[in-house]
Design goal:
The structure is a single chain. The chain has about 475 residues and is mainly α. It has 14 helices and 5 strands. The two termini are about 110 Å apart.
């Protein structure tokens, strides 16, 4: 795990591993040239011993706080060092602002300190001249002492590094302990919450159990009550059966009495019928006598009627009286004149008489007529020819004309119709025959409607609705004269 900084140390505990900035620095260093160019000064030129050569301290294993402190010292030094003393890999870092060098260039700075003894010597010299406290190994801060020892090659650096590592490990252990304690507290709170929820759930279960027992007791009580009612109903049914038996006995006695009364009434009726037969014979004799007397009276009355008839005929002619009232046959009861009864139209002359009726409506089954008259034409040509002929017929007779075509398979419906002709196409899924029946039903009772079709089913249905069916051949013969 990463090392934590010492308490009391001002160095930030940031990672100094390879990053994007390290890659950028390496690229910039390659662009600047090799690590030892002509302007650099070799480390032996100063006559100093190479510090930390004999030390067995692994730079990769340094505590994080020591690495950060070394990066800060090197970052402070590169800003005031000569360009010749700065390795090529660190030169991009030297161009950073002082506050960013240690944070953004920690990787290149530490690598240079580890790999270049000349750079370490130059950093130590700069620190002794400008910031001697940075290379003081006697300070109380073990992090600063360890960093200074790494730069100076001090033999006591191992002890300082061990102290820093131990403190970092202790800090990490304390942090882990605190985190564990926090987790334990959280788990304890969660357990308490779950216990509370469990207690609440148990209470709810107990309430449900109590309610269920109460409901069960209520159902048992209702079952007992239903049993009592059932026994009462059975007793009532037995009493009703007994009463029914008694009523049946009474009814049988009453039936026998009524049968005896019926026989007596039949005998009286037979006697009355014999008496009526005798009275009818007497009445026939009286009618014969009255008929003979009436014949004599009719002769005299006929003479009087002949006289009056001449007078009435002259008077009617004089007064111009009409005979528009109901005839005696119209007043006979027990029979009804059929409504809408129409005869068959077999020739164009009969069709002309129908078309001469006031406000007549001519409904034409389009394809039934065209396929009868000119089936060799296309459907579009059949429609055009029939509609034009019907327009001429409408102009000649003044009748209202409606032609209905089956809309199935029609690609383009004409947008305009000739004057005097209404052209209809049945909707998808609707037959033209149904549209014709609907047109006849929509007309008011009493208006003459003529339907031209050779379809027997359509003709019968419109005839029942009061319309006049006309075969397609009759219309074609009439249109041939237009």
């Amino acid at each position: 795990m990463p090392q934590s900084p010492e308490p009391g140390s001002s160095l930030p505990a940031e990672s100094t591993g390879p990053s994007r900035e390290d890659s950028a620095f390496a690229t910039a260093a390659d662009a600047d040239g090799p690590a030892t160019d002509a302007g650099e000064r070799p480390p032996t030129a100063r006559g100093e011993e190479e510090p930390a050569e004999a030390l067995a301290v692994d730079w990769a294993g340094l505590p994080e706080a020591v690495r950060v402190r070394l990066a800060e010292i090197a970052a402070a030094a590169v800003g005031g060092m000569a360009r010749a003393d700065v390795p090529a890999s660190v030169r991009p870092v030297a161009r950073f602002a002082p506050a960013k060098r240690a944070r953004l260039g920690a990787g290149p700075l530490l690598n240079a300190l580890r790999d270049s003894s000349a750079f370490r010597v130059a950093v130590v010299e700069w620190a002794r001249e400008h910031r001697p406290e940075m290379v003081d190994t006697t300070v109380d801060d073990p992090v600063s002492a360890a960093a200074a020892g790494m730069l100076l090659g001090d033999r006591a650096v191992r002890d300082h590094v061990a102290v820093v590592a131990r403190r970092a490990e202790d800090a990490q252990l304390r942090a882990e302990r605190d985190a564990a304690v926090a987790r334990a507290d959280k788990l304890t709170a969660e357990v308490e919450r779950l216990r509370a929820e469990l207690a609440e759930a148990r209470g709810a279960v107990q309430r449900v159990r109590d309610e269920g027992e109460a409901e069960l007791e209520r159902l048992r009580r209702r079952l007992r009550e239903q049993g009592v009612r059932l026994r009462q109903a059975r007793d009532e049914a037995a009493a009703a059966r007994a009463a029914l038996g008694r009523a049946a006995g009474v009814a049988a006695a009453t039936q026998r009495a009524l049968a005896a009364e019926r026989d007596r009434e039949r005998e009286r009726a037979e006697a009355e019928r014999a008496r009526a037969a005798r009275a009818e014979a007497d009445a026939e004799v009286a009618r014969q006598a009255a008929r003979e007397a009436r014949q004599a009276d009719e002769v005299r009355l006929a003479l009087l009627v002949d006289t009056l008839a001449g007078a009435v005929t002259g008077l009617r002619r004089e007064l111009a009286l009409g005979g528009s009232g109901p005839r005696p046959a119209d007043l006979v009861r027990g029979a009804t004149t059929p409504q809408g009864a129409v005869g068959r139209v077999e020739d164009p002359a009969a069709l002309d008489r129908l078309l001469a009726l006031p406000s007549v409506h001519l409904v034409v089954d389009g394809y039934n007529v065209t396929k009868t008259g000119y089936p060799e034409l296309t459907l579009a040509d059949q429609r055009d020819r029939l509609v034009n002929q019907l327009a001429a017929l409408a102009a000649r007779t003044g009748a209202e004309v409606t032609v209905v075509f089956d809309g199935a398979g029609v690609v383009a419906v004409p947008s305009a119709s000739p004057r005097g002709v209404r052209v209809l196409f049945s909707d998808p899924g609707v037959l033209a025959d149904d549209v014709i029946r609907a047109l006849v039903t929509a007309e008011p009772e009493g208006r003459p409607v003529v339907v031209v079709t050779s379809d027997r089913a359509v003709a019968d249905s419109v005839r029942r609705r009061g319309a006049h069916p006309v075969p397609s051949s009759v219309l074609l013969a009439r249109l041939g004269r237009v």
